[in-house]
Amino acid sequence: MDITRETVLKTLSDLGLPGGGTLVSRDLIRALRVEDGTISFVIEAESADAARSLAPAQAQAEAALKALPGVSRVQIVMTAHGGAKPAAPSLKVGGHPTPHQGGPKRVSGIDRIIAIGSGKGGVGKSTVSSNLAVALARQGRRVGLLDADIYGPSQPRMMGVNKRPASPDGKTIIPLQAHGVTVMSIGFMLKEDEAVIWRGPMLMGALQQLIEQVQWGELDVLLIDLPPGTGDIQLTLAQRFALTGAVVVSTPQDVAMLDARKALDMFGKLKVPVLGLIENMSTYVCPNCGHEAHLFGHGGVAAEAQKMGVPFLGELPLDLETRLAGDAGTPIAAGAGAMSDAYARLARRMVEGGMA
Ligand SMILES: Nc1ncnc2c1ncn2[C@@H]1O[C@H](COP(=O)(O)OP(=O)(O)OP(=O)(O)O)[C@@H](O)[C@H]1O
C-alpha cells in the first residue's frame, strides 16, 4: 500500500502529547514529506524545554509510523525556536514552507504577479513599489502590494497603515487597505522594533503564508516589494509562484547598475521575464531656481536596458517631496503634481503593455 500524507497525519493525530493535544492539533509539524516509503518531517517546538518534553512523543511517533505497511524509513527532526512568536489571533507566521508538487503555481484570484527588485538596497525600490501601486489603483486597476522585505519592511510606514490584520479563523489573514491598494506586510505581524531573526526555512514559510493565506480577493495585479539583492526570497518566490515578470529599480550610479545587472541575471536564470528597468533618483531639479542636476549621473539605466534588450519603463527624479510623502504614509502618487504625473505615466505604460 502506498503511504500518503493523510495516513501519516491520521496516525500522528492518534498519539496524545503530555499536556494534551497531538503533534497535529498543536501545529508542531513542519516540512512533512512522504516519498517512496520514506516519511520525514520536523517537529518545531516552541522552546528548548518544550522540545525536551516532546522527546518521548518523537520516539512514539517514529515507532507508530514505522509500523505502518509500506513505510521503509522515518526521519523526524526536532527543532526549537524562540525568535518568531505565533502571531495573534492564533496565526503562526514563520512556519516552514509546505512543499508542493509541480512547478511554480498560480495564486487563485490574482491575474498577474510582478516582483519589484533591485540589486542594491536604498535605490528606492519600496518607494517605487508603493507609488506604482497607488498610481495603478488610481487608474482603476485592482492592486495588491505585498511587502516581502522580510528583514526591513517599509510599506507600513510608506502606505501609512500599521495594525495587526484580523484572522477570523486563525488561518486566513485579512489584508489592510490604504490609498485604494490592498496591502500586506510582515511588518503588520511583528511588534514595532522587533528584529526578525528567522532561519531560512521559516523565512520561506512566512513568505508563502503571506501570499497564500492572505485573502487578496480578485486582483488585476499583485506587486511584490522584494528585499534587495539576489537571495533566497527571490529564489523561493520564483520557484513557488508563477510570476508574470519582474521590474528592476536602479539609480544611475555605476555601482548600482552593476548590482542591477546581477538582479537581471538572476531573474534570467530563474526564467522570470524582466518587464523593464526603472531609473530612480535620476535628475534633481532645484526647487528654488529650477536648475537640473544629475547627482548620480543620468541615462545609465536607459542605456543599460537597451544594451540588455529589456524595456526601459521610465525615470523618476530625485525629489524631496517623494521622501517626505513616503515617510508620512501618503505616497506622492496619491496627490497631484509632477511626481504624481510621472508615476501615472509609468502606470499607464504598464497597463497599456498588459503588465498590470
Ligand atoms: N525619487 C526619490 N527622491 C527622493 N527620495 C527618494 C526617492 N526614492 C526613494 N527615496 C528615499 O530614499 C530612501 C530609500 O528608499 P527606499 O526605502 O524606497 O529604498 P529601497 O531600495 O526599498 O531600500 P531597501 O531595500 O534597503 O529597503 C527613502 O528614504 C526614500 O524616501
TrEMBL record:
> What highest taxon heads this organism's lineage?
Bacteria
User: Could you tell me the keywords of this UniProt record?
Assistant: ATP-binding, Hydrolase, Iron, Iron-sulfur, Metal-binding, Nucleotide-binding
The record's annotation in Pfam families points to: FeS_assembly_P, ParA
Asked if the record carries the keyword Iron, the reply is: yes
- Which residues does the UniProt record annotate as the domain MIP18 family-like? 5-75
Q: Extract the PROSITE patterns matched here.
A: MRP (PS01215)
Assembly notes: Homodimer.
Function summary: Binds and transfers iron-sulfur (Fe-S) clusters to target apoproteins. Can hydrolyze ATP.
Against PANTHER family, the record matches this protein to:
IRON-SULFUR PROTEIN NUBPL
Of which family is this protein a member? Belongs to the Mrp/NBP35 ATP-binding proteins family.
Name-wise, this protein is Iron-sulfur cluster carrier protein
Species, as recorded: Gemmobacter lanyuensis
